[in-house]
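Lecture 7, part 2: worked example. A protein chain together with S-adenosylmethionine.
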Amino acid sequence: MRAAVPDAIFAHPRLARVYDAFDGPRDDLPAYTGIADELGARRVLDAGCGTGTLAILLAGTGRAVIGADPAAASLDVARSKDGASAVTWVHAGAAGVPRAHADLAVMTGNVAQVFLTDADWAQALRAIGAALRPRGYLVFETRRPERRAWEEWAAGTGAVTRDIPGVGRVEQRFEVTAVNLPLVSFRYTYTFRADGAVVTSDSTLRFRGREELESSLAAQGYEVLEVRQAPDRPGHEFVFVTQRSA
Ligand SMILES: C[S@@+](CC[C@H](N)C(=O)[O-])C[C@H]1O[C@@H](n2cnc3c(N)ncnc32)[C@H](O)[C@@H]1O
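Predicted complex, written out as structure tokens:
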């Protein structure tokens, strides 16, 4: 299996430490705790859990939660948070998630877009399917390509600076570096005012359309139950609610 190599923004220890401060309030997460309630999920796999905010929220409601991510630095941040000991943390990309017999697997924060090739996406879906109990659910979000988010990104909002406890002032700059649809690449540049260090992170995401998603899910044995909106980002996202066929 090819090892997943996460972007520096998740994998570089200095960037992982400031990730939540730039990510802002997580207005996206209540919809996912609501879905876990709605589906009666007691065992949840958070694939691509990053710094663990959702995994910890879900474990705080008494669920058995596995948070898996290929970025060790993000998992270190997750493990340092209050409530983290209630989660089982696994250092693995989606293709390497354990067979957890989970009722529900989630991929929030547009994790589904990190899989650039058809083969990587199919492999992730297969491994997550194997981590679910029969008829278990996979719920994930991905940006709607017709919304052309990269155009808004390119218009840019300039630099953002945060004063982060224990770190100091950090400036974040963002630029779109390439649009080769369905792939969009961008770079974050962080300047740490405390010591002048500059650290960059390059990312590429894939924008898949609804039909492509539906057929790739069907090919890996998932039934699409519903495609919802993300309540905090109406019109921007597909939220796929799917179920393992058997
Ligand atoms: C935008 S973050 C979202 C993190 C988290 N789900 C959240 O909502 O805060 C994307 C995450 O995908 C992870 N990632 C990158 N490659 C991955 C892969 N092959 N399998 C699973 N996760 C991956 C990154 O390490 C990062 O934590």
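The chain has a mean pLDDT of 96. The chain is about 30% helix and 35% strand. Keep this in mind for problem set question 3.
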